[in-house]
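__Protein archive entry__

___
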Amino acid sequence: MPPPSALTTPVSGWGRTAPTTAHVLRPRSYEEAAQAIRDCGGRGAIARGLGRAYGDAAQNAGGAVLDMTGLDRIHEIDAVNGLVVCDAGVSLHRLMQILLPLGWFVPVSPGTRYVTVGGAIGTDIHGKNHHLSGSFTRHVRAIELLTADGSTRLVTPEDEPELFWATAGGMGLTGIVLAATIQLLPVETSLMRVDTERAADLDDLMARLTTGDHRYRYSVAWIDLLARGARTGRAVLTRGDHAPLDALPPRARRAPLDFRPGRLPGAPGYVPEGLLGRGSVGLFNALWYHRAPRERRGELQKLSTFFHPLDGVPHWNRIYGRSGFVQYQFVVGDGREDALRRIVSRISRRGVPSFLAVLKRFGEADPGWLSFPMAGWTLALDIPATLPGLATFLDVLDDEVASAEGRVYLAKDSRLRPEMLAGMYPRLDAFRQLRADLDPRGVFTSDLARRLAL
């Protein structure tokens, strides 16, 4: 049985679609975390950070969930070589606050900075710079990993490559990351120099990404998935890099590394179902597309504007109502552009009301056994969970993705059929065997792990 200090509470992902009840503990030390693992009981345990996995990856019905945000110490900063050693519960937001004034930035950032270091490793997060920099764990030099027997191991890609790369993207199922050593990115300012342009359709967008991405460190396209006919896949493409000091106007040079992200009022606690329907989202998409410049070069933007626009709206996931939403993200490889076109066409014809839809190019696949990226094209979209026929429709998209030898992102999944997994992740059997050898009692588990037989 879990210890008496555990709180029994509902736990859900950011999409709010499938909450389950677990015993939530918040360890304040490595010793408390190890004791929680030894005492977790037959339903096992899973680590949880700031809850930004969209599906059921950080849930554990009837078992223990370890809230790792109490372990939030920064142990060491090497401001000369750009290395930081920190606890797994430290957020990327806090790293930015501490490190930007020293001239360093996190090597990879997803669409939110409210992700813990442990979560970034467990899901091997990617960002707008994957085509150049790969995923987050490529920049991790060492991990302190709490294993199923309650002991701690220092794991590096040189000394224990199998365990290291099984942990990268391993969804917390090889152990609990307690701390990590991360290589940082040097920057001169806290601003971005950004180019923006409109693409008339999907083929136009893919051509621009293919021919121009190598000139930018960061690249992402917002795509209008409700546009039809000749406009199918029209998009706003945004690319840029960290602005050098000499690009700033004189006034901004007085505090070039200032980091002050803006913040708007939070989404209300109650939002009526159906607010984000085809009509309202279609209107928003049309306005957003036409509001964007046909072409604008060299605009200076805040880091928060370029990387994390939705972080300025606390609890933005509430806008989908109590039923929540599904985020669906897939990747198909280079040479499989026809599959991407078919999927975008299906979504457009179906009238899926998604205003948060982004298309990016990935670079080469990452070494993580269950890491998501592979060289090619990734599309992510948010879909209201109340959309009629959603489950069947997404099953059809899964079939298209699998036929193209692509894969679905586990950190955002809440409904993939388990029989689809092996074809999407070729190292799955090796991952299962390593888990069985390292954790024969199945201490580390989650709703995701049970659903997909990970």
